[in-house]
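Supplementary Text 2. Reproducibility record for the structural model of the 256-residue chain.

All settings were left at their defaults, and a single model was retained for analysis rather than an ensemble. We include the record here because the model underlies the residue-level annotations in Supplementary Table 4.
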Amino acid sequence: MRHIEREEHFEGELMADLHQRNAAPPAAPSPPPGVPAQDVFAAARAGLPALPAPPPPVDHPGPVAQLTTAGEPAPGLDPAALEFLAADTASRAAQLLNQALLPHDPHQQGAALLPLSVDDDVVRLAAAAPSTEIFTRLCWSTHRTPSSLARAARAWQYGGAAALTILDEPWDPDPSYLRAVREQIKRAWDGERAPGVRVAGNNWLTLIGHDAQLRLSTDGHLWYPYRKKHGTWWPAGYPHRDITAVLGDLLALEAD
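Retained model, structure tokens:
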């Protein structure tokens, strides 16, 4: 009898435990009411004052402090170099401001803001007409000869960083495009004997019998004129899309 009662007791406990396990979990409490984030941001914007009008473009950079006339400099301080760097910074700021005020162009946006390598930045400084002493220091800092840095600075003056990419290193454009360009040069002479063209460095077109050369930019859109000086090809002008126009200018310079 006691054995039966014990089994009934265990059975009751087991059934109670099963009922408890199978019972539905209690409902999660509902989250408290809130405000959509977009409404918060919209309200914040509505309370802000309107942005001021953009500044006007500048014709030239502002003046910089004249440090070379400020008395005896502290040891290790080069007032002339600091004046040069300050003037360069003001000039770059004016250029960037004027660029920011131009109409939006997705193809040109940020082109002038690309970071430069140390060597390219030294070339940019050399193109800003530094004094002889500062130019010599720039040569020393990049282990360049004065002629090499002057040549690179000339390229920068005509085309910036893009012109430096074709100063010493050729690249491989489409050969069919170069063939078409050579035919274009022949047609431009309108029946006269066109100058012979020799392809050198894949993207350098040298006029046979002339100290004149044309170099194609790496984007394939512009032709840079070069002239030979003391056995070395030097940048000779601003680039142009029309190769016959660049060629005509080069030969006109040679005639003068």
